[in-house]
Amino acid sequence: MHKPWHSLLFASILFLAFGLLSFSFPKNGINLSTRVSLNFPTLATLFETKSHKKDISKILAIADAMDTTNNLVDTTANNLKDTTVKLINTLQYKNKLVLKKIFDALAQLKTNPKSIRVLHYGDSQIEGDRITDYLRLKLQAIFGGSGVGLISLMPVAPSISTKITYNTNWDRYGVFVAKDKRVKHSNYGALAGFNRFVSYKVVNDSSGIITSDVKITTTKLGGGNTTAYKKVKLFYGGSQTKTWCEFYDGPALVSADSLNVGGYLHLKEYNVGQGSLTHEFKFKGKDSPDFYGVSLESDNGVIVDNIGLRGSSGTFFHQINFAQLKQFYDYLNVKLIILQFGGNVMPSIKSDAMAVNYANYLRNQINIVKKAAPNASIIFIGPADMSVKEGTEYVTHPYLEVTRDAIKKAAIESDCAFFDIYDCMGGKNSMPTWVEQKIAATDYIHFSPQGARKIATFFYSSLINEYNTYLKNK
């Protein structure tokens, strides 16, 4: 017959066994494989009341105050005196001229109306138009411009600004994580990838005709200017045979013509703006061109492109045909390129030397981008805080700060400006509080849409404050 003291005895023995195990278990755990380890918490971690979480209330208050300011001169940001968040309004650089190209271009828009380009490259932290959408909203409100800019015909992640539907025969080919082995060339375009409705194969006269279509719908969720564009531009190249292309603005057929054969960069331009928010391409041919993307844009003002590259570490530009990339940038009239990478490499960083090596890879990529876009300024946005579990607590990745410092050094020495997300969100061990506040995801890596807007607010405030200083000095 089971008695209460039996349960008490069993629990005591079990507690004693686990207590002895906690004393004898290796502090760093037992590695079962290169990726899996077995850990056991110590009694100290179980009963410890110390928390690593940061108080970010002042930071969030500043973000909210900045977000209410719509004027060119950001007086709210300039009058904030909290020195505990000193880097929130700071772009770091060695030479003040690093931002002159973009600032000159912005200043000239009022007297010389034309379109200039801001390309925002990044990993999954910006996909879906996060961070970029706020920067676009603010810049277009001040300097003019409309539309979301470049988008893929087959995006990896959904966007708040556009909805794209396509047939099942479409496929994507990328270079931003690893070069696609199916592709024998290096013509990947400005988006570091392209789409096709016919897979790569030998095309001959007996090949059947294939039809396919893509429908693009814009939404007003990205702001009023998102839907006010007047041009739709189709970028493509590499087709072995002629492709028939019909373009519809709403129900109206705007154009029906063949696309060019061969070459690595062609452009087809369509006028829109009759009130429809839906556009459709209908293709027909034995082969598919490589479609580098579609741009929804205006003839003047600032066009801001969101180029979210999930899983990328930013070390891919050397694998894109340099001549094609330069031609792309020249046509787009690129004046600012934002590079936001670093998070995806953190799981593989195991030493200070590895962090420095990665930063040196980025240095080489920056030099390629500078040569391809000699008339553009470059800003590098460093990695955000990201947490790993240590016992029962989430703490900053052990090599995040050294990686951030190495990236910052490489960027500034390459005559780029550097924006420090890690510091502006609170620094070490700040991510758990962002998660607790529901402005970051429970993976302790990515921001929520609300958190991304706060980061975008910090970045835009830094940029516009620098521009206001430029105007005063000019």
Short characterization:
The protein is α+β, with helices and mostly antiparallel strands. The protein has helices at 4-24, 43-47, 57-67, 75-78, 100-108, 132-143, 322-332, 352-372, 400-413, 421-424, 431-436, 449-473, and strands spanning 30-31, 37-38, 115-122, 149-151, 162-166, 171-174, 193-196, 210-218, 231-237, 243-249, 252-259, 266-271, 278-285, 290-297, 301-308, 334-340, 377-381, 387-390, 393-396, 417-419. It folds into 2 domains: 54-145 and 301-474, SGNH hydrolase (Rossmann fold); 150-299, Galactose-binding domain-like (Jelly Rolls), CATH 2.60.120.
The CATH C-level name of the largest domain is Alpha Beta
Over all CA atoms, what is the radius of gyration?
26 Å
Mean pLDDT: 88
Strand order, largest beta sheet:
15-3-16-17-20
Amino- and carboxy-terminal Cα gap: 92 Å
Query: Quaternary state, please?
Result: single chain
Question: So, CATH architecture of the largest domain?
Answer: 3-Layer(aba) Sandwich
Number of helices: 12
The CATH topology annotation of the largest domain reads as Rossmann fold
